[in-house]
Specification:
- This protein has a 6-stranded parallel beta sheet, sandwiched between helices. The chain has a two-stranded parallel sheet with strand order 6-9. Strands 7-12 form a two-stranded parallel sheet.
- It has 284 residues and is α/β, with parallel strands linked by helices.
- It has one domain: Rossmann fold, CATH 3.40.50.
- The radius of gyration is 18 Å and the shape is globular.
- The protein is built from 9 helices and 12 strands.
- The longest helix is centred in the first third of the chain and has 22 residues.
- Helix 1 crosses helix 7.
């Protein structure tokens, strides 16, 4: 299969390219400098000229706080960009796998309630979440063969992420303070990327899929487990979201599970963390 990866220079995109190559697919890796998804004509031309069988859209505005100050910028990439890719893919008959987020939910559930499934009604509270939901809606409206994949709390060796930040802080400090009232599903991009390829090859798998690391935890829990696995003696102090306010509201509870039999299942988030640390050469 000939696969175009949009946003190939990003943290997830790099792992998707690697997974596609390992899968034996012919890969066209287009980073932001190669393909600006906000340019409708450029997107249409790329998909038309390259004769691809599938597109995996990893291009995204991921600066959650920055989106609050620049909603037009976030919409240009996450909503209009998704629209451009979806329409172009539908026009040439290419399969589309589009990556979305847990931030499409308001997170109003408590940690003892069920995790969000695909049929739950989105209600984003942030500009970022709203822009990603608009992207989902654009993909659906385009009418082509598609899978929309919601994932969460991504970490990988190809970019900045929470785990990398904790590792750096743990080497510098004896203790760190991390919020313990936000719960989600940490997801290793090394595990998510092959799952996206599975959906790219499965034309029967249509609609929305929740694909995230198995289980759930708080950011505090993730920091504790990071230091435990890495053998770093750094104390993790709990705090609340109110203690560390940010410009964009975060969903307090955004754990994802799938209600679909055809959704790829990822290993527990702890295994994703183990894989990530091994990739970085970090050992206890």
């Amino acid at each position: 299969m000939r696969v175009l990866v949009a946003g190939a220079g990003g943290m997830l995109g790099q792992d998707v390219v690697a997974a596609a190559e390992a899968n034996g697919d012919e890969v066209l890796a287009l980073a932001r400098g190669d393909l600006d998804v906000t340019d409708e004509r450029a997107v249409a031309a790329a998909l038309s000229d390259e004769h691809v069988d599938a597109v995996i859209n990893c291009a995204a505005w991921t600066d959650v706080d920055g989106a609050e100050d620049d909603p037009d910028g976030a919409d240009a990439v996450n909503a209009l960009g998704a629209d451009h890719i979806a329409n172009a893919a539908a026009h040439v008959g290419a399969r589309l796998v589009h990556v979305s987020t847990d931030y499409v939910f308001d997170g109003a559930r408590s940690a003892d309630e069920p995790a969000y499934v695909e049929s739950d009604i989105p209600a984003p509270h942030s500009v970022y979440g709203a822009s990603k939901l608009a992207g989902e809606e654009a993909v659906t409206a385009a009418g082509g063969s598609h899978a929309i994949v919601r994932s969460s709390w991504l970490f990988g060796v190809g970019g900045r992420n929470f785990v990398a930040t904790m590792l750096a802080l743990g080497e510098e400090r004896d203790e760190v303070t991390v919020v313990d009232d936000q719960v989600g599903c940490p997801t290793a991009t090394a595990h998510l990327a092959p799952a996206l390829l599975v959906l790219a090859h499965d034309a029967e798998a249509q609609g929305i899929f929740h694909v995230a690391g198995g289980g759930q935890c708080s950011w505090h829990d993730l920091a504790v487990e990071t230091f435990r696995q890495a053998g770093i003696a750094c104390r993790v102090l709990p705090c609340t979201t109110a203690d560390m306010p940010r410009p964009a509201p975060r969903p307090p509870f955004s754990a994802l599970v799938s209600e679909r039999d055809d959704a790829p299942l990822l290993p527990p988030w702890q295994e994703g963390l183990t894989t990530y640390l091994a990739q970085r050469g970090v050992h206890a």
